[in-house]
Amino acid sequence: MNRRRVAIIALLLLPACLLAGCRREGAAHRKLIAILVPSEDNPFFQAEAVAAAARARALGYDVRIDVHGDDAYEQDNLIDVAIASNASALILDNAGTDASISAVRRAAKAGIACFLIDREIHASGIAKAQIIADNVKGGELLATRFADALGHKGEYAELLGKESDTNARVRTRGFHNVLDRYPELVRVTAQSANWSQSEAFQRTETILQAHGDLNGIIAGNDTMALGALAAVKNARITTIKIVGFDGGPDALAAVRAGTLDATVLQPAVKIAGMAVDEADRFLKTGTTGEPERQFVQCELITKKNVDEFGQFERLKPAKAGD
After folding, report:
1. Do the beta carbons of residue 312 and residue 44 sit within 8 Å?
2. Domains in the chain, ordered, with CATH?
3. Which of 18, 40, 77, 158 is deepest in the core (most CB within 10 A)?
4. 267 near 312, Cβ under 8 Å?
């Protein structure tokens, strides 16, 4: 174990040791649920952290939220912190499908019940649950809308997420399950903007210079779609159809305004709540009552139904025909 990791654990354990003398045998002790997400600056990750924490506190648990920044090394450190904190359960949006397997295994061996959200790992039997949005079906929903908006023909660009993120690959597979059916729809370029709005802005500026006849841009998340939208607006172009994925508040506002053609809800709030409920059930009964891998349906959001949605969640029941 490196010095940094030892220092973190020592600092964490010190208050617990000091408080130990204050506890009386048999005194009630609230269990801890640790929540670990990639970022609290990104609205999506912030929404899942806030939703998980609120649900856990409502069920009577103490909560600890940490951020790994999509850094597998930092994630390892924070898993050690969760172990040292005697966490009973871990709600984890991980730092890489393959890079996170050993970290989840270490937490599980330490007796922490692990519940993965948003991103799965390529291993079974380690986590108690892996609850993720059905990104393939979500990608197909978005691509169908995009193809219809373009009249099934024309040139388009694709903005991809982080190459290390399974969701980036899964979503693009969903896109092309639909888009590749139309020979007159031509993808002129596909570039990674790493889920970043600023990178998407820069990539789109370059794409517009190289492809003056561009008809559309399909983005792997809303943040990149909004970056593309800003670049298109800056270039004073009004004919390019842009779509995103996630269902964040800024994207909903753009859909409502008609500047973003559509997005797809990835229900972060629902998924985070499900994970905490299943953690609570497991801690109380020894089982979640559910299969390990669970896929939650995505929903297409357009100007027609945008008022039915809030920040990464559905607020109103779906109307007939939605």
Report:
1. yes
2. 3-133+268-295 (3.40.50.2300), 135-266+302-314 (3.40.50.2300)
3. 158
4. yes
